[in-house]
Amino acid sequence: MHYLDHNATSPLRPESLSAVTHALTIGGNPSSIHGAGRAARAVMEEARERIAALVSAKPAQVVFTSGATESCHLALLGAAEGSLEGDDSRITRIFVSAIEHKAVLASANRLAERFPWVHVTVLPVAADGVIDLEALRVALREGKGRTLVAVMAANNEIGVIQPIADVSRLVREAGGLLMVDAVPAAGKIDLDFALCDYMVLSGHKLAAPIGSGALIVADGAPLAPQLVGGGHQRGLRAGSENLSGIAGFGAAAHAMRDAEGERTRIAHLRDHFEAALKAAIPGTVIFGEQSPRLCSTSGFAIPGLTAETALIGLDLDGVMMSSGSTCSSGKVAVSHVLTAMGIEESLAACALRASFGWSSTMDDVHAGVRSLVKLHERVRAREAA
Ligand code: PLP
Predict the structure, then answer these.
(1) Mutate to test the pocket of ligand 1, among 65, 101, 164, 294 (most ligand atoms within 8 A of CB)
(2) Which atom of ligand 1 is nearest to the CA of 71?
(3) Which of 72, 196, 295, 327 is catalytic?
């Protein structure tokens, strides 16, 4: 089996697995004051420190969630609701980049439905997959009211890294708030939480268990809880914490500290994959190729080989990849990210994603290229017949 789908989920790292196993044996609730509860809390607090360290945040700023989808909801809906407490700081405008994950786009739309005074604006990206900073500057200048801007640190489908420092400067100058979805970027590039007000993380993209996530919240940033009940996590997210998931998440974050060597190794695999593919199939298109990209991600298309056909053929060869974003990979639909970049529909229908991580090897790369070349030859033979 050749797993090249780390952006969908990165298989558990051994460090994460042993932290999960240990946490499962504790048997206490982190909220209990007895010995087992205190042991559970110690595990949770260690994980909190490790996750905070990964993005240069303070441990107290970490709110554990069930994953990035929940974190996006909590950030957007929670910020808007929380901002109602002070009249002049009410959020009335949400700007989202056109290439945000559906979890962000759908949360923004839900927010506009719930709070009719909130207006959602979609910010364009250029053909290279990078957000149009001029459009952001103009949008911030026009209109009234406090703005919450959502721009991801890097895109999950094509890996293009966004200029968060520039975005942050513009948003801060305009007195707005910034949410950064750092799901695919965490551990792959250095992230500085100080540039934003809310940061979204997902455990399973870092080789921790599915069902663990975090929202990092800046001191003083508005946030109303979306799950209420017990006073867990300073009242920001009720519910007994998923201790084993959190422990695994912490261990995975810790394993990715000082991961320069790992990043270089993964970048080498990705570069080799793309070079071999382009050499064997000269028409191959790499999306966002000229932009700074995550070491882990290759979004590409082989004209004529549709993603649907390719994914079936790859799977038969034991190679696992994705088409566009995970959530839509069950039904192969044209990616909204590629549409936003102005990619023609016929090429977008051929879009595939290979994503690399801690368990990827050169053998996986060779198997992926071999299978794609074979599938492409089959298409050519059919066209020639
Ligand atoms: N944001 C991005 C950029 C993603 O890639 C994903 C998942 O693919 C999510 C959010 C949602 O993550 P989760 O599966 O943890 O809910």
Answers:
(1) 101
(2) 16
(3) 327
In three-state form (DSSP H/G/I as H, E/B as E, the rest C), the secondary structure along 249-303 is HHHHHHHCCCCHHHHHHHHHHHHHHHHHHHHHCCCCEECCCCCCECCCEEEEECC
d(CA 207, CA 90): 38
Q: What does the pLDDT look like over 152-200, one tens digit per residue?
A: 999 999 999 999 999 999 999 999 999 999 999 999 999 999 999 999 9
Q: Name which of 10-19, 65-74, 324-333 the model is least confident about.
A: 324-333
Any residues with Cβ below 6 Å from ligand 1, and which? 67-69, 101, 103, 152, 156, 181, 183-184, 202, 213, 325-326
Structure tokens at 240: 């007994």
Distance in angstroms (rounded) separating the CA atoms of residues 292 and 288 = 8
Residue ID of nearest Cα to ligand 1 atom 5 = 156
Q: Which domains does the chain have, with CATH numbers?
A: 2-10+258-384 (3.90.1150.10), 14-255 (3.40.640.10)
Q: How many helices (H) and strands (E) does the chain have?
A: 12, 12
Lookup result for tokens 């739309």? 109
327 is an active site residue: yes
Q: What is the pLDDT of residues 85-131, one digit of tens each?
A: 866 689 999 999 999 999 999 999 999 999 999 999 999 999 999 99
Q: Which two tokens stand for residue 101?
A: 């994950």
Residues 335-346: what's their mean pLDDT? 96
| Per-residue tokens: 335 | 């990616």
Ligand 1 centre to CA of 208 (Å) is 13
Joined tokens for residue 258: 């000082």
- Looking up tokens 């060869």, which residue turns up? 317
